[in-house]
Amino acid sequence: MQPQYFIGVDGGGTRCRVKLTDQVGTQLAQCIGGSANIYSNFEQAMQTVMQLIDQALLEANLPSAALTQTSVVLGLAGANVQSAKRKAQAYPQSFNTYQVYSDVEIACIGAHLTQPGAVLIIGTGSQGVYWDSQQFHCIGGWGMTISDQGSGAQLGLSAVRLALQAHQDLLSQTLFTQQIMANFSHSPEQLLKWSCQATPADWGQFAPVVFAHADTDKHARALIRQTAREISTMLDYLTCNNDIPVALMGGLAEPILRWLPTTLQAKVVPPQEDALTGARLLAGSPIANAQRAS
Fold it and tell me: Which residues form the ATPase BadF/BadG/BcrA/BcrD type domain (predicted)?
């Protein structure tokens, strides 16, 4: 039986969005809820997703029986971890069709409207993927400790480390390094205590400070250039050495662009649509059966 309705789910680490459409793409409902990271908290994430899907049906005045006529694609944070993805794919459900992807994969499909292309998300963390029209090829997304190069969290960590070195006169102190240390009352001991509890988002709060000083401070400029090199390495891979377009997303996407090599800047394009649209396209087209590259 051909599906009568389509649901796209964009589940991130902060919020989850669900859109319900009919066969011609008319939006019937859209709902927003909390976090949906299936690696960090599987049960909570899936509960959030299913509750939002029920809410979407309710807002569209559709009975619960309509689920058997609905094609559903979940794009979820944490689905780059294959064990978590398999668990989500096996989750009990009664949909017409049901597929699980990562949130970066649906963002890629939305950005290029199913055509070959890539996305690199550089916010607190970093993760990228390119779609070759048959398979997804993913990089990153493994967390700040072992991954997330070119990210706001890594840039913030580097900035704090440098500021501490300057505070100890291992490097020259500048207004930039002093501004960083002022957050800890210029006390390495306070910094130590804070760092033991700091999250990636906590480290990432210092990334805007680095960009703010990059044109006038040699330390900040060196940090930005290092971040640009890390991002360039990922972009070289994602664009197949400049053969396909890439969309940059996340908080660092706009400020880092001018620091990238001009050859890579020329390959950066604005996303055509968002991740929810990508999920909807996967739910309603033959590419929904595509498999991730191993």
Answer: 7-260
Cα distance between the two ends of the chain: 31
Backbone phi and psi for residue 142, each to the nearest 5 degrees, phi listed first: -105, 15
Q: With bands split at pLDDT 50, 70 and 90, how would you rate the model's confidence at 24?
A: confident
Longest dimension (CA), the chain: 71
- Identify the band that residue 293 occupies on the pLDDT scale cut at 50, 70 and 90: very low
Number of H helices, E strands in the chain: 12, 9
Residue 12 Cα distances to 42, 87, 225, angstroms: 12, 17, 29
Residues 89 and 169 in one domain: no
Token digits of residue 114: 């199913």
Residues 108 and 169 reside in one and the same domain: no
**Which two tokens mark 261?**
């090599």
36 and 69 belong to one structural domain: yes
Domain count, the chain: 2
- Say if residue 216 is in the same domain as residue 243: yes
Residue 221 sits in the same domain as residue 163: yes
User: Is position 206 within any domain?
Assistant: yes
Determine if the pTM surpasses 0.90. Answer: no
- pLDDT tens-digit readout, 251-287: 999 999 999 999 999 999 999 999 999 999 999 843 3
- Both tokens of 200, joined, read 């990636």
- Supply the CATH number for residue 280's domain: 3.30.420.40
Sign of the C-alpha dihedral computed for residues 48, 53, 57 and 59 taken in this order = positive
HSE-up of 34 (CA within 13 Å, CB side)?
Answer: 10
